[in-house]
Design goal:
Layout lengths: L1 H9 L13 E10 L6 E10 L7 E8 L4 E7 L4 E3 L5 E4 L2 E4 L2 E7 L4 E9 L25 E18 L2 E4 L4 E9 L6 E6 L8 E11 L2 E12 L2 E6 L5 E7 L3 E7 L3 E8 L4 E6 L4 E19 L5 E15 L3 H4 L2
Antiparallel strand pairs: 1-2, 1-12, 2-3, 3-4, 5-6, 6-7, 7-8, 8-9, 9-10, 10-11, 10-12, 13-14, 13-22, 14-15, 15-16, 17-18, 18-19, 19-21, 20-21, 21-22
Length: about 325
Amino acid sequence: MIRRYIESVLHPERYHGRGKQRPFFEGWYYKLVDPTAKHRYAVIPGIFRGQDPHHDHAFVQVLDGTLGTASYHQYPVEAFQAQDDSFEVCVGPNRFCADTISLDIADGERTLQGTLHFEGVTPWPVRLTSPGVMGWYGWLPFMECYHGVVSFDHTLEGILTVDGLTVDFTHGRGYIEKDWGQAFPEAYIWMQSNHFEETGTSFTGSIAVIPWRGYTFPGFIVGLWHQKHLYRFATYTGAKVEHLSVSSEAVNWTLVDSHYRLELQADHAEGGLLKAPIRTEMHRRVHETMQSSVAVRLSDRHSRRVIYEGNGLNAGLEVYGDTQKLIGK
């Protein structure tokens, strides 16, 4: 039992639901953008087990980031299969791994079929004292929601047929992350892009209301992968939020630690509605866009030298709940 728990913590990409009490959800987020950036999709496989077993099911969500439309494809919970000692998940005829996605969806909402392979998968580093994006929080067994970055950035190879349209994703770019636990936070901001001027640069960041021993606090995790180096800003690293503001036009966010300052501006854009887990059901409530842009500026806090400055396109952005709780008001 202890060995299995240690293995699961040190492999955040794998399925974590074995033996977990209700409620429980787990989902993986695949971002797929073709080389022209005219075709952008998020494909989200997962499983949900609510307080009421009648709501149990597996699913594959699909967001068309260009049109801003979303579809939800539900399967019996028995259609969900996951390997114990590796990251391989199947939902019905659909198969998901770190380096491959194979889709066969054909129902009244959408058809989506084909296989993509990924090259150069780049996971958030896992260490014994900091097992992935969660840092040492990843070892705690009672968090409401856990997060993982399976790949900051990779290239795509293959073809998908979407509603009769053949799309060649070869030389496009992808990103993979995941969440699992009891429910999504009551309020959060999430943003991500790996389409910067310099290929291989990728950014992901989130701030959320975190329940903790009877009270809540705004916790955040931010990672900038640039020139094969990870710049981390997180609650567990001692970084601080210097500024956070949310308007109908943009999210402005500045973080600092003892060495660096990271300035971010994410612009709002049109998107689609995705279902997200609460304790009782998968509830349609989250607006997500893949048409945002994220301006990133990383500088040395002491010399004020700019280490990196760029604009990430085809960016994902979600803003949900009472953001005043994130700002501290």
